[in-house]
Design a protein that fits this description.
Metal Binding Protein, Guanine Nucleotide Exchange Factor, Chain A; globular; 2 domains; four-stranded antiparallel sheet; single chain; mainly beta
Length: 248
């Protein structure tokens, strides 16, 4: 359970790798997924044996409860990009000695063979998108910019409901594409438009995901077995059979 500060950790079942300058800085099947006060503070912590120590350079700011390193691969240096606790913060006992990396300072992150962006995906974070027949109308400065009875409603944990509308139901003459982009670990990369009403321009007011991550469709046509009733070996290691409602 997370404590009142949102601090919590659990072992991750995922194979996690971190890349900088074309080299694997960390490669682990034993990483910890650590919550440190919210989604933006979600990190992977790696056992020291799963981190290539040759790439770590002490910053000179180490000491006390926390040690910090630069990460260097060849001529590429990510400053103050790795850290470890000799004494963990309150609520995180058990992560002592593990090494974490600043996500945005590394080049690439992988869970299994899939690249992951922004931060680790929270296994307790849901994104549900549903078609609806609700009537949605969007006004800006009293002007109707969009109106639809065929929206898709996106429900995301701890966020307001988002209404996604067909392009045909939006007055595109009022929209102007910008160069802005943002990334979401749960949805993909978004493109943006500004809205102009008379002389007023509202920058990056509208977004869309032209190529969202195809999360569930990836398993189409594949087969799975009940872990509770068969023996499964992962990288040669036999998995323990879980006890669930399907065990009998």
């Amino acid at each position: 359970m997370k404590n009142e500060n949102g601090f919590y950790w659990e072992p991750s079942p995922r194979w996690v790798r971190v890349q900088l300058g074309g080299a694997w800085v960390a490669d682990s099947r034993r990483a910890l997924l650590v919550w440190q006060g919210g989604g933006a503070r979600l990190h992977y912590y790696f056992p020291r044996d799963d981190v290539n120590q040759d790439f770590l350079r002490e910053t000179g700011r180490s000491g006390g409860e926390r040690t910090t390193w630069h990460v260097q691969v060849g001529d590429k240096v990510a400053e103050n990009a790795a850290w470890s606790y000799a004494q963990a913060p309150e609520g995180l006992a058990g992560i002592e000695g593990y090494i974490a990396f600043r996500w945005h300072k590394m080049d690439r992150w992988f869970e299994e063979e899939e690249e992951v962006f922004v931060h680790p995906r929270d296994p307790y974070h849901r994104v549900d998108t549903m078609p609806s027949s609700r009537h949605i109308r969007v006004e800006v400065d009293g002007v109707t910019v969009a109106e639809s009875r065929r929206p898709y409603l996106l429900f995301e944990t701890n966020l307001p409901t988002r209404f996604y509308l067909p392009r045909e139901d939006v007055n595109m003459s009022l929209l102007h594409a910008t160069d802005s982009h943002t990334a979401c670990p749960y949805k993909g990369t978004a493109s943006y438009w500004s809205v102009q009403i008379s002389e007023n321009v509202y920058k990056d007011l509208v977004w869309s995901y032209p190529d969202p991550i195809p999360e569930a469709p990836k398993i189409k046509g594949l087969l799975s077995f009940y872990n509770e009733k068969v023996d499964i070996f992962v990288d040669g290691v036999k998995e323990k059979r879980p006890i669930t409602a399907w065990s009998k």
